Protein backbone atom coordinates (compact mmCIF):
# COMPACT_ATOMS: atom_id res chain seq x y z
CA UNK A 1 0.00 0.00 0.00
CA UNK A 2 1.41 3.44 -0.94
CA UNK A 3 1.99 5.89 1.90
CA UNK A 4 -0.73 8.12 0.48
CA UNK A 5 -3.27 5.32 0.85
CA UNK A 6 -2.63 4.85 4.55
CA UNK A 7 -5.62 5.85 6.63
CA UNK A 8 -5.01 9.08 8.57
CA UNK A 9 -5.55 8.72 12.30
CA UNK A 10 -8.55 10.67 13.58
CA UNK A 11 -6.33 12.58 16.01
CA UNK A 12 -4.04 13.62 13.14
CA UNK A 13 -6.97 14.82 11.04
CA UNK A 14 -8.17 16.71 14.08
CA UNK A 15 -4.81 18.45 14.48
CA UNK A 16 -4.80 19.38 10.76
CA UNK A 17 -8.06 21.18 11.28
CA UNK A 18 -7.16 22.59 14.70
CA UNK A 19 -3.43 23.34 15.03
CA UNK A 20 -3.98 24.37 18.66
CA UNK A 21 -6.09 22.28 21.03
CA UNK A 22 -6.30 23.21 24.71
CA UNK A 23 -8.22 20.90 27.03
CA UNK A 24 -9.03 21.27 30.71
CA UNK A 25 -6.27 23.81 31.34
CA UNK A 26 -5.67 24.82 34.95
CA UNK A 27 -3.14 27.49 35.93
CA UNK A 28 -2.57 28.42 39.54
CA UNK A 29 -0.12 30.84 41.11
CA UNK A 30 -0.13 30.16 44.85
CA UNK A 31 -3.67 30.83 46.05
CA UNK A 32 -4.70 32.45 42.78
CA UNK A 33 -6.41 30.33 40.14
CA UNK A 34 -6.10 32.01 36.75
CA UNK A 35 -7.55 29.25 34.55
CA UNK A 36 -9.89 26.53 35.72
CA UNK A 37 -10.76 23.81 33.19
CA UNK A 38 -10.26 26.08 30.19
CA UNK A 39 -10.68 24.57 26.71
CA UNK A 40 -10.15 26.09 23.27
CA UNK A 41 -9.59 24.98 19.68
CA UNK A 42 -7.95 27.25 17.13
CA UNK A 43 -8.85 26.56 13.50
CA UNK A 44 -6.32 26.20 10.72
CA UNK A 45 -5.92 29.45 8.76
CA UNK A 46 -8.00 31.70 11.00
CA UNK A 47 -7.19 34.88 12.88
CA UNK A 48 -8.55 34.14 16.32
CA UNK A 49 -8.94 37.23 18.48
CA UNK A 50 -8.55 36.57 22.22
CA UNK A 51 -10.20 39.09 24.53
CA UNK A 52 -10.87 39.40 28.23
CA UNK A 53 -10.45 41.91 31.02
CA UNK A 54 -6.97 42.82 32.21
CA UNK A 55 -5.55 40.03 34.36
CA UNK A 56 -7.98 37.35 33.11
CA UNK A 57 -5.04 35.27 31.92
CA UNK A 58 -4.68 35.92 28.19
CA UNK A 59 -0.90 36.14 28.27
CA UNK A 60 -0.67 33.16 30.63
CA UNK A 61 -2.81 31.18 28.17
CA UNK A 62 -0.45 32.09 25.33
CA UNK A 63 2.58 31.17 27.45
CA UNK A 64 0.96 27.82 28.29
CA UNK A 65 0.39 27.10 24.59
CA UNK A 66 4.00 27.82 23.65
CA UNK A 67 5.35 25.85 26.59
CA UNK A 68 6.77 28.77 28.62
CA UNK A 69 4.31 28.15 31.42
CA UNK A 70 3.84 24.64 32.75
CA UNK A 71 0.16 24.41 33.71
CA UNK A 72 -1.08 22.91 36.97
CA UNK A 73 -3.30 20.52 34.95
CA UNK A 74 -4.74 19.98 31.49
CA UNK A 75 -3.32 19.37 28.07
CA UNK A 76 -2.13 21.57 25.23
CA UNK A 77 -1.49 20.17 21.77
CA UNK A 78 0.08 22.10 18.94
CA UNK A 79 0.14 20.42 15.52
CA UNK A 80 -0.87 17.21 17.25
CA UNK A 81 2.08 17.25 19.65
CA UNK A 82 1.56 17.54 23.38
CA UNK A 83 3.31 20.64 24.69
CA UNK A 84 2.42 20.02 28.32
CA UNK A 85 4.05 16.59 28.52
CA UNK A 86 7.08 17.37 26.39
CA UNK A 87 10.51 18.22 27.72
CA UNK A 88 11.75 21.46 26.10
CA UNK A 89 14.06 19.52 23.74
CA UNK A 90 11.35 17.14 22.58
CA UNK A 91 9.10 19.93 21.37
CA UNK A 92 11.89 21.46 19.29
CA UNK A 93 10.38 20.37 15.97
CA UNK A 94 7.12 22.06 16.75
CA UNK A 95 8.72 25.15 18.32
CA UNK A 96 10.20 26.22 15.01
CA UNK A 97 6.72 26.17 13.44
CA UNK A 98 5.53 29.18 15.44
CA UNK A 99 6.57 32.79 15.92
CA UNK A 100 5.73 35.02 18.86
CA UNK A 101 5.36 38.75 19.32
CA UNK A 102 5.35 39.23 23.10
CA UNK A 103 3.38 41.91 24.89
CA UNK A 104 5.83 44.83 25.09
CA UNK A 105 8.00 43.58 22.22
CA UNK A 106 10.76 41.90 24.25
CA UNK A 107 13.52 42.86 21.82
CA UNK A 108 17.12 42.48 23.01
CA UNK A 109 18.20 46.08 23.58
CA UNK A 110 21.91 45.44 22.95
CA UNK A 111 21.26 43.89 19.53
CA UNK A 112 20.25 45.69 16.32
CA UNK A 113 16.88 44.85 14.78
CA UNK A 114 18.59 42.61 12.22
CA UNK A 115 20.53 40.80 14.96
CA UNK A 116 17.29 40.38 16.93
CA UNK A 117 15.72 38.67 13.92
CA UNK A 118 18.78 36.45 13.60
CA UNK A 119 18.42 35.11 17.18
CA UNK A 120 15.81 32.40 16.43
CA UNK A 121 17.51 31.61 13.10
CA UNK A 122 20.84 30.96 14.85
CA UNK A 123 19.10 28.97 17.57
CA UNK A 124 17.36 26.57 15.19
CA UNK A 125 19.73 26.66 12.21
CA UNK A 126 23.24 27.19 13.60
CA UNK A 127 24.76 26.05 10.30
CA UNK A 128 23.47 29.02 8.26
CA UNK A 129 26.30 31.25 6.95
CA UNK A 130 26.48 34.79 8.47
CA UNK A 131 25.89 36.52 5.09
CA UNK A 132 22.76 34.45 4.48
CA UNK A 133 21.57 35.15 8.04
CA UNK A 134 21.89 38.87 7.33
CA UNK A 135 19.96 38.56 4.06
CA UNK A 136 17.14 36.58 5.65
CA UNK A 137 16.90 39.07 8.52
CA UNK A 138 16.80 42.02 6.09
CA UNK A 139 14.03 40.33 4.14
CA UNK A 140 11.95 39.75 7.30
CA UNK A 141 12.47 43.38 8.33
CA UNK A 142 11.07 44.54 5.00
CA UNK A 143 8.25 41.98 5.12
CA UNK A 144 7.18 43.60 8.37
CA UNK A 145 6.86 46.97 6.68
CA UNK A 146 10.05 48.55 8.02
CA UNK A 147 12.55 50.36 5.80
CA UNK A 148 15.59 48.22 4.99
CA UNK A 149 17.95 50.43 7.04
CA UNK A 150 15.93 49.68 10.19
CA UNK A 151 17.84 46.39 10.34
CA UNK A 152 20.92 48.32 11.52
CA UNK A 153 19.13 50.28 14.24
CA UNK A 154 18.96 49.47 17.93
CA UNK A 155 15.53 49.15 19.61
CA UNK A 156 16.11 52.44 21.49
CA UNK A 157 16.35 54.21 18.11
CA UNK A 158 12.89 53.06 17.01
CA UNK A 159 9.41 54.50 17.60
CA UNK A 160 6.83 52.36 19.41
CA UNK A 161 5.20 51.33 16.12
CA UNK A 162 8.57 50.42 14.59
CA UNK A 163 9.41 48.30 17.64
CA UNK A 164 6.20 46.32 17.12
CA UNK A 165 7.14 45.73 13.50
CA UNK A 166 10.66 44.70 14.54
CA UNK A 167 9.10 42.22 16.99
CA UNK A 168 6.92 40.97 14.16
CA UNK A 169 9.98 40.56 11.92
CA UNK A 170 11.59 38.39 14.60
CA UNK A 171 8.35 36.40 14.98
CA UNK A 172 8.44 35.72 11.24
CA UNK A 173 12.12 34.70 11.24
CA UNK A 174 11.50 30.96 10.97
CA UNK A 175 8.69 31.15 8.36
CA UNK A 176 6.15 30.07 10.98
CA UNK A 177 2.79 28.48 10.29
CA UNK A 178 1.42 29.83 13.55
CA UNK A 179 1.78 33.41 14.72
CA UNK A 180 1.13 34.52 18.31
CA UNK A 181 0.58 38.24 18.78
CA UNK A 182 0.10 39.62 22.30
CA UNK A 183 -1.43 43.12 22.16
CA UNK A 184 0.29 44.08 18.90
CA UNK A 185 -1.51 47.42 18.50
CA UNK A 186 -1.40 48.58 22.13
CA UNK A 187 0.11 52.04 22.33
CA UNK A 188 -0.07 52.72 18.59
CA UNK A 189 -1.94 55.71 17.18
CA UNK A 190 -5.15 54.76 15.30
CA UNK A 191 -3.51 55.03 11.88
CA UNK A 192 -0.50 52.96 12.95
CA UNK A 193 -2.82 50.40 14.55
CA UNK A 194 -4.96 50.13 11.40
CA UNK A 195 -1.83 49.65 9.28
CA UNK A 196 -0.57 46.94 11.60
CA UNK A 197 -3.96 45.21 11.38
CA UNK A 198 -3.82 45.37 7.60
CA UNK A 199 -0.31 43.92 7.61
CA UNK A 200 -1.42 41.07 9.88
CA UNK A 201 -4.31 40.25 7.53
CA UNK A 202 -2.05 40.39 4.46
CA UNK A 203 0.58 38.17 6.06
CA UNK A 204 -2.10 35.69 7.09
CA UNK A 205 -3.46 35.57 3.55
CA UNK A 206 -0.17 35.49 1.65
CA UNK A 207 1.72 33.17 4.00
CA UNK A 208 -1.29 31.04 4.99
CA UNK A 209 -0.75 31.69 8.69
CA UNK A 210 -2.97 30.79 11.62
CA UNK A 211 -2.94 33.74 14.04
CA UNK A 212 -3.61 33.74 17.80
CA UNK A 213 -4.13 37.43 18.47
CA UNK A 214 -4.60 38.77 22.00
CA UNK A 215 -6.06 42.26 21.89
CA UNK A 216 -8.12 44.89 23.66
CA UNK A 217 -8.53 46.74 20.39
CA UNK A 218 -12.16 46.61 19.25
CA UNK A 219 -11.29 47.89 15.77
CA UNK A 220 -8.84 45.00 15.36
CA UNK A 221 -11.55 42.53 16.38
CA UNK A 222 -14.05 43.93 13.89
CA UNK A 223 -11.58 44.46 11.05
CA UNK A 224 -9.44 41.35 10.88
CA UNK A 225 -10.54 38.57 13.24
CA UNK A 226 -12.40 35.58 11.82
CA UNK A 227 -13.55 34.50 15.27
CA UNK A 228 -13.11 35.82 18.79
CA UNK A 229 -12.56 33.84 22.01
CA UNK A 230 -13.66 35.48 25.25
CA UNK A 231 -11.84 34.80 28.52
CA UNK A 232 -13.91 35.36 31.63
CA UNK A 233 -14.63 33.46 34.83
CA UNK A 234 -11.28 31.58 34.43
CA UNK A 235 -12.45 29.94 31.19
CA UNK A 236 -13.13 30.61 27.53
CA UNK A 237 -16.81 31.43 27.92
CA UNK A 238 -17.55 31.80 24.20
CA UNK A 239 -15.88 31.52 20.79
CA UNK A 240 -17.40 32.72 17.54
CA UNK A 241 -17.98 35.65 15.24
CA UNK A 242 -18.93 38.88 17.00
CA UNK A 243 -22.67 38.49 16.15
CA UNK A 244 -22.52 34.93 17.54
CA UNK A 245 -20.87 36.20 20.74
CA UNK A 246 -23.56 38.82 21.19
CA UNK A 247 -26.22 36.13 21.02
CA UNK A 248 -24.79 34.46 24.13
CA UNK A 249 -26.03 37.32 26.33
CA UNK A 250 -22.97 36.93 28.60
CA UNK A 251 -22.80 40.11 30.71
CA UNK A 252 -19.11 40.83 30.04
CA UNK A 253 -19.58 40.32 26.29
CA UNK A 254 -22.62 42.64 26.33
CA UNK A 255 -20.74 45.33 28.18
CA UNK A 256 -17.61 45.01 26.04
CA UNK A 257 -19.21 45.01 22.59
CA UNK A 258 -22.26 47.13 23.38
CA UNK A 259 -20.48 49.72 25.55
CA UNK A 260 -19.72 53.14 24.02
CA UNK A 261 -16.42 52.02 22.48
CA UNK A 262 -17.91 48.80 21.17
CA UNK A 263 -20.72 50.69 19.50
CA UNK A 264 -18.29 53.17 17.97
CA UNK A 265 -16.21 50.32 16.50
CA UNK A 266 -19.39 48.68 15.20
CA UNK A 267 -20.52 51.93 13.56
CA UNK A 268 -17.11 52.43 11.96
CA UNK A 269 -17.18 48.87 10.59
CA UNK A 270 -20.69 49.45 9.17
CA UNK A 271 -19.48 52.71 7.54
CA UNK A 272 -16.51 50.87 6.00
CA UNK A 273 -18.79 48.20 4.58
CA UNK A 274 -21.16 50.78 3.11
CA UNK A 275 -18.20 52.60 1.56
CA UNK A 276 -16.87 49.37 0.05
CA UNK A 277 -20.31 48.41 -1.26
CA UNK A 278 -20.93 51.81 -2.84
CA UNK A 279 -17.49 51.98 -4.46
CA UNK A 280 -17.90 48.50 -5.93
CA UNK A 281 -21.37 49.35 -7.27
CA UNK A 282 -19.97 52.62 -8.74
CA UNK A 283 -17.22 50.71 -10.50
CA UNK A 284 -19.82 48.26 -11.87
CA UNK A 285 -21.97 51.18 -13.13
CA UNK A 286 -19.05 52.78 -14.99
CA UNK A 287 -19.17 52.26 -18.74
CA UNK A 288 -16.20 50.23 -20.00
CA UNK A 289 -13.65 52.48 -21.59
CA UNK A 290 -11.81 49.65 -23.27
CA UNK A 291 -12.41 48.16 -26.70
CA UNK A 292 -16.03 47.44 -27.53
N1 LIG B 1 4.64 34.14 36.65
C1 LIG B 1 3.60 34.53 37.38
N2 LIG B 1 3.60 34.41 38.72
C2 LIG B 1 2.54 34.79 39.46
N3 LIG B 1 1.41 35.32 38.96
C3 LIG B 1 1.36 35.47 37.63
C4 LIG B 1 2.44 35.10 36.78
N4 LIG B 1 2.09 35.36 35.49
C5 LIG B 1 0.85 35.89 35.56
N5 LIG B 1 0.42 35.95 36.82
C6 LIG B 1 -0.91 36.44 37.25
O1 LIG B 1 -1.89 35.81 36.44
C7 LIG B 1 -2.95 36.71 36.14
C8 LIG B 1 -3.16 36.75 34.63
O2 LIG B 1 -2.06 37.40 34.05
P1 LIG B 1 -1.97 37.69 32.49
O3 LIG B 1 -0.67 38.38 32.28
O4 LIG B 1 -2.20 36.44 31.74
O5 LIG B 1 -3.20 38.68 32.27
P2 LIG B 1 -3.71 39.29 30.90
O6 LIG B 1 -5.10 38.80 30.68
O7 LIG B 1 -2.72 39.05 29.84
O8 LIG B 1 -3.79 40.85 31.28
P3 LIG B 1 -3.45 42.15 30.39
O9 LIG B 1 -4.66 42.38 29.55
O10 LIG B 1 -3.29 43.23 31.43
O11 LIG B 1 -2.20 41.89 29.62
C9 LIG B 1 -2.57 38.04 36.76
O12 LIG B 1 -3.26 38.18 37.96
C10 LIG B 1 -1.08 37.92 36.99
O13 LIG B 1 -0.68 38.67 38.08
MG1 LIG C 1 -1.37 40.22 28.83
From TrEMBL:
Keywords: ATP-binding, Nucleotide-binding, Transport. InterPro entries: AAA+_ATPase (IPR003593), ABC_transporter-like_ATP-bd (IPR003439), ABC_transporter-like_CS (IPR017871), P-loop_NTPase (IPR027417). Residues 261-292 are annotated as: Disordered. The keyword Nucleotide-binding applies. SUPFAM superfamilies: P-loop containing nucleoside triphosphate hydrolases (SSF52540). Gene3D superfamilies: P-loop containing nucleotide triphosphate hydrolases. Residues 283-292 have a biased composition (Basic and acidic residues). SMART domains: AAA (SM00382). PANTHER family: PROTEIN TRIGALACTOSYLDIACYLGLYCEROL 3, CHLOROPLASTIC. This is ATP-binding cassette domain-containing protein. It comes from Pontixanthobacter aestiaquae.
Amino acid sequence: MAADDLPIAASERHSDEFPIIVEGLVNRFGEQTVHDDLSLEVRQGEILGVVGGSGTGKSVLMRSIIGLQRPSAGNVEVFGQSITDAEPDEAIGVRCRWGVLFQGGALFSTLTVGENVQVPLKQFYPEIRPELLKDIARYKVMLSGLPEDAANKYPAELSGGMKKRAGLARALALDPELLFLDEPTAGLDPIGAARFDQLTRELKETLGLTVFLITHDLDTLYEICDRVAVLADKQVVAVGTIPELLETGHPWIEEYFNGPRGRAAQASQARDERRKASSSSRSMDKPHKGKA
